[in-house]
Amino acid sequence: MHIFVVDDNKDIVELLKNLLKSSGYDVSTSTSGKESLDLIRHENFDIVLLDITMPEFSGLDIVQSLKDSGDLEKNKIILFTAASISDEEIKKWKEFGVQGCLRKPFDPSVLFETLTNVSMK
Hints:
Blueprint: E1 2-6, H1 10-22, E2 26-30, H2 33-42, E3 47-51, H3 59-69, E4 77-81, H4 87-96, E5 100-103, H5 108-119
């Protein structure tokens, strides 16, 4: 399974990359929202782990751009954030087309459970 990790925090990107690779996943990463949007549109990722809060071009900007271009349905997006997000907001994003949402810090077992559930959809 090929997972694309997008977060402006390089430490989080490295942590997730190492965790996922050690569990057998193929992992690509980016710390740039705009660069990530282009990669999501032109590469085939099984799942995109996407930080919500990034400078200049946020994860939500990426999701909206994918929705506007008709590309959101082709991608399985899991949002993650350290910011406070309500269950109602999570429900709204799932209705919009996002497959899941994780709150940082998250337990690795929750991450792997979410990846498994989303990959089976």
